[in-house]
Amino acid sequence: MATRQKTQGKPLAPIKIEKRTGTQSLERAVNVLRAIASRGRHGVRLKEVAEISGLSVSTSFRMLQYLHKEGLLDKNEHASKYHLGPLLYELGLLARPRYSLSEICDQAMQNLAEKTQDTVYLSERSGLEAVCTLRKLGEYPVKVMPLDVGIRRPLGVGAGGLAILGAMPEDEAESIIQSIGNNIRHFGTLTPVSLRKLVQKTRSQGYSYLPGATPFTGAVGVAFPAENPLCAISISAIASRMNDKRQAKLAHTIQQEIKTIEEKLRTVRGLGIY
Known about the structure:
Layout lengths: L1 E2 L2 E2 L2 E2 L3 E2 L5 H16 L8 H8 L3 H13 L3 E4 L4 E4 L1 H10 L5 H16 L2 E8 L2 E8 L15 E3 L4 H9 L2 H11 L11 H14 L2 E4 L5 E8 L6 E8 L5 H27 L4
Antiparallel strand pairs: 1-4, 2-3, 5-6, 7-8, 7-12, 8-9, 10-11, 11-12
């Protein structure tokens, strides 16, 4: 849309008037927060935020400045990196009691860590992403900890997210892969084509397996509940402990613990708690 100004009867050049909506600004701000959250506690530089969020560098800079001003982000001036800020933590303290899945899964995951001696994760679906909401460490001397609680990544990037994606109806999973196609390129060598193959394998065997985010590691994941896969439990270990036979055994062990979790879920839902 353009208007023309007049001075003493002479038209001036058109002035472009951009329509801006609060919704668009909010979407961009959320994209920036998600981009920073995807890197966990390592922090993200301006250029990386632009690449991950799909926004221009100038737009990303404006969003970062405002979010920092409001306390939603912190900035490490020395490293020029942005981190999630104190206001998000404070808001999370209020929101968390409504979402108690990690509490319901706590004992089952502790059991898994003790049985397998490996690192166990709980992932919960959040839109097109999976968020790590709980972690339990086993006693094996070599610890595998590529994920911190709170890190979010596109579905399919980790074993938990891949398990969730593989448990969905095919058309829904395909729609998600098309939506996240550009984002997953920022996480290792994963592509939409390779992700489709991993989803098919996950669907056929009933659990996911994915090489880890760090070299010489791997992880097995199982999604639940069966009727609406919104969560997954995964176990991560060094590659030498992840041959085909142990992958299947770990998946079976996870499935057994998930049965107890689903029973608890049925109970709390009946009480109107979750």
